[in-house]
């Protein structure tokens, strides 16, 4: 399959009073046609900054895209003209934000807000835009009679449906969804996830789903990339990563979440906190918290290696290359989940 | 029962609004035994936090009784309430808004000790504060830091140390981990569990996250629009879920496993309004199994054995049906 979106070596920094926050550090990522990729990480891992950089919505100042390339349809978005970028935003690549309460304008009716997107990007009359916006509302399960209603008349789940309708209105090739269900209750979350799954199949859209919830990723995505301190530490297909997590951080992440199928009574959390993004460690970013870290982990940055025997499973860790492997780690990886 | 630390009987809390009476808590009964954890689960707006606040006397109940060690909190005067609060403490959901930004960590943790005159000298106060910081795993160098200097996980530890400072018997945890990242969430959950074993604490654990509750609680109460719909021992509830709402809630949780797609019990619509509710099962409008007789009169909690209670007219019927399919 062809890559629709290719991010190469993206580096983003935030410059604040005398400090430099290293938000994204040399991140590379591919998104194929029709595929959905989950980008998972904790607060401050740089997930949102990555998505914002794709559309160049990072606030500048303090944010600065320091380097890298983002290819979409053969064009480097970072070097292209502003006018071209505007035709991409909301049209070919659209975004769903986390909080539906703040991403809708309270003084316009929801129908108008959807029609606005259509009118802006597609050469069509007002009536046509309205007809299409009504269609969009129906598609996400809102009766078109509610076209003239305002955001405050909708509940959280319904508002998120409106936002989704807005994002698919121009049949984009890529949807960037930044924690689309985090603000919703579980039963509503399940409804919204189902809707996104349906739309994805119907419209053949690629999806970059940003979340901290591994459960959501397992339900919606084909592939997953685990992010830590501005880097992708592990990526692969859902079965590859979920059955045999190999990076110590991913292993720790799975040990931290209580699940319904879990029988144990004690969680195994990762000790310590994420490193301060203004002072990243000299070696591997995870090394201060890593139970398997050796001398080289604290002094050198590991590169990306493909795990032998697996098709797409990649890892940013020294451990697999060690001449004398760490037996406990190897056992954990082999045993899987 | 003698070993019940907390008993809630026919508790009601109505709020007057412009559009009518909001039934936040409507005739709720439950009890917690000493040293146990009760998990109170429900979606936003179902009244779980209101129950917590009623127990701590932060709201006054419309009617009903809350017996804490046999003493009715609803009838306690200010002095009695002051004494009762020493025995029951709260850990709030949001560690960013529940700590005073102008007090240092040691002042925050030490304040309850001063209010309740538990220490006689400055030296004793300092010693006790350092002990508490040690218990919750905060390093001593943070003593003079301010909340904004700490991350979410450490702030929540400050909140826990403050709740522990008066050596209470009962702690109410109102979504204590929902604003934390998963790796930090696990640290805090483990800490709360260790503390319970060490000090024999009783918890009321309020949350919307069923997987956290399964890990944490001995007993679970599922709440829907101001009423309890199902209560049971934790394992029993997950093994043998009776109420259609509990089933829907369980099936809505995305499992972090490959090859395991959700088998969702379809739940259409959203929470109905708790203002002037019509008589009858409040879940009926969203329920897959609703029958005509579900509306009209309120279902009550029925005993299904093993201390498993469920408020559903059709629970017995549905259980037999499900068993029939399996056979």
Structural summary, described in words:
The complex is a heterodimer of chains A (337) and B (327). Chain A is of the alpha/beta class and 337 residues long. Helix content of chain A is 32%, strand content 23%. Chain A has helices at residues 47-54, 82-88, 110-121, 126-139, 156-168, 186-203, 214-220, 238-243, 248-256, 295-299, 327-335; strands at 3-16, 19-32, 36-40, 63-72, 75-76, 93-96, 174-178, 206-211, 223-228, 231-237, 304-306, 314-316. An 8-stranded mixed sheet of chain A has the order 6-7-8-3-9-10-12-11, sandwiched between helices. A 4-stranded antiparallel sheet of chain A has the order 2-1-4-5, covered by helices on one side. In chain A, helix 3 (110-121) packs across helix 4 and helix 4 crosses helix 5. With 327 residues, chain B is an alpha/beta fold. Helices cover 33% and strands 22% of the residues of chain B. Chain B contains 10 helices and 12 strands. Chain B has helices at 48-55, 78-87, 105-115, 122-135, 152-164, 182-199, 210-216, 234-239, 244-251, 315-326, and strands at residues 4-17, 20-33, 37-41, 63-68, 71-72, 88-91, 170-174, 202-207, 219-224, 227-233, 302-303, 309-310. An 8-stranded mixed sheet of chain B has the order 6-7-8-3-9-10-12-11, with helices on both faces. Chain B has a 4-stranded antiparallel sheet with strand order 2-1-4-5, with helices on one face. In chain B, strand 11 and strand 12 form a beta hairpin. Chain B is globular. Chain A binds chain B through residues 42-43, 155, 157-158, 185-191, 193-194, 212-219, 238-239, 242-243, 252-262, 265-271, 273, 337, and chain B through 43-44, 151-153, 181-187, 189-190, 193, 208-212, 214-216, 238, 248-262, 264, 267-268, 270-271.
| General form of chain A | globular
Unreliable parts of chain A: none
Q: Tell me, briefly, the overall form of chain B.
A: globular
Helix content percent band of chain B: 25-40%
Structural class of chain A: alpha/beta
Secondary-structure element order of chain B, N to C: EEEHEEHEHHHEHEHEEHHEEH
The whole-number mean of residue pLDDT values of chain B reads 87
What is the first-to-last residue Cα distance of chain A? 29 Å
Provide the succession of SSEs of chain A: EEEHEEHEHHHEHEHEEHHHEEH
**In order across it, which strands form the biggest sheet of chain B?**
6-7-8-3-9-10-12-11
Strands of the largest sheet of chain A, in order across it? 6-7-8-3-9-10-12-11
> What's the total helix number of chain A?
11
Question: Tally the helices of chain B: what do you get?
Answer: 10
Radius of gyration over C-alpha positions of chain A, nearest whole angstrom: 21 Å
Poorly predicted ranges of chain B: none
- Please identify the structural class of chain B as seen in this structure: alpha/beta
């Amino acid at each position: 399959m062809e890559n629709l979106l290719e991010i190469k070596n993206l580096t983003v920094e935030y410059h604040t009073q005398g400090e430099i926050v290293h938000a994204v550090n040399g991140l590379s990522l591919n998104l194929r046609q029709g595929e959905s990729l989950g980008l998972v990480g904790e607060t401050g891992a740089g997930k949102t900054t990555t998505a914002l950089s794709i559309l160049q919505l990072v606030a500048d100042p303090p944010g600065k895209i320091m380097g890298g390339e983002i290819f979409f349809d053969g064009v480097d978005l970072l070097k292209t003209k502003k006018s071209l970028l505007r035709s991409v935003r909301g049209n070919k690549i659209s975004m769903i934000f986390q909080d539906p309460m703040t991403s809708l304008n309270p003084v316009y009716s929801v129908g108008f807000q959807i029609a606005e997107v259509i009118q802006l990007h597609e050469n069509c009359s007002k009536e046509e835009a309205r007809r299409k916006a009504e269609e969009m509302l129906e598609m996400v399960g809102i009766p078109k009679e509610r076209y003239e209603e305002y955001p405050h008349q909708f509940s959280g789940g319904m508002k998120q449906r409106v936002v989704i309708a807005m994002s698919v209105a121009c049949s984009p090739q890529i949807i960037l969804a930044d924690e689309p269900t985090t603000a919703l209750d579980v039963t509503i979350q399940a409804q919204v996830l189902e809707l996104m799954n349906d739309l994805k199949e119907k419209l053949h859209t690629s999806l970059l789903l940003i979340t901290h919830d591994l459960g959501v990723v397992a339900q919606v995505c084909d592939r997953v990339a685990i992010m830590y301190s501005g880097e992708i530490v592990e990526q692969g297909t859902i079965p590859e990563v979920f059955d045999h997590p190999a990076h110590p951080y991913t292993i720790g992440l799975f040990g931290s979440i209580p699940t319904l199928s879990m029988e144990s009574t004690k969680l195994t959390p990762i000790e310590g906190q994420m490193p301060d993004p203004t002072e990243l460690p000299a070696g591997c970013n995870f090394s201060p918290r890593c139970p398997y870290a050796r001398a080289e982990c604290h002094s050198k940055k590991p590169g990306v290696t493909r795990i032998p025997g697996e098709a797409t499973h990649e890892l940013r860790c020294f451990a697999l290359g060690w001449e004398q492997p760490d037996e406990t780690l190897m056992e954990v990886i082999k045993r899987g989940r | 029962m003698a070993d019940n630390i907390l008993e809630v009987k026919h508790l009601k809390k109505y709020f007057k609004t412009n559009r009518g009476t909001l039934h936040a808590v409507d005739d709720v009964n439950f009890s917690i035994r000493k040293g146990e954890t009760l998990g109170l689960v429900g979606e936003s707006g179902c009244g779980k936090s209101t129950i917590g606040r009623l127990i701590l006397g932060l709201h006054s109940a419309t009617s009903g009784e809350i017996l804490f060690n046999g003493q009715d909190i609803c009838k306690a005067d200010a002095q009695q309430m002051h004494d009762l609060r020493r025995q029951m403490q709260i850990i709030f959901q949001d560690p960013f808004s529940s700590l005073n930004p102008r007090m240092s960590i040691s002042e925050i943790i030490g304040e309850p000790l001063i209010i309740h005159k538990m220490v006689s000298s400055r030296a004793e106060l300092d010693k006790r504060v350092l002990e508490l910081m040690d218990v919750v795993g905060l390093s001593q160098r943070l003593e003079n830091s301010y909340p904004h200097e700490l991350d979410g996980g450490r702030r929540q530890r400050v909140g826990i140390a403050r709740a522990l400072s008066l050596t209470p018997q009962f702690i109410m945890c109102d979504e204590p981990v929902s604003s934390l990242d998963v790796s930090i969430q696990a640290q805090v959950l483990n800490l709360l569990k260790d503390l319970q074993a060490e000090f024999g604490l009783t918890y009321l654990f309020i949350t919307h996250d069923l997987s956290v509750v399964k890990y944490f609680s001995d007993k679970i109460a599922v709440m829907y629009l101001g009423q309890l719909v199902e209560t049971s021992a934790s394992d029993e509830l997950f093994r043998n879920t009776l109420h259609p709402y509990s089933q829907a809630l369980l099936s809505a949780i995305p499992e972090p496993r490959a090859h395991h797609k959700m088998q969702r019990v379809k739940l259409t619509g959203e929470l109905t309004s708790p203002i002037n509710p019509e008589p009858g099962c409040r879940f009926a409008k969203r329920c897959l199994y609703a029958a005509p007789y579900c509306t009209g009169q309120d279902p009550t909690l029925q005993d299904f054995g093993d201390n498993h209670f469920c408020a559903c007219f059709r629970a017995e019927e549905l259980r037999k049906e499900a068993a029939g399919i399996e056979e």
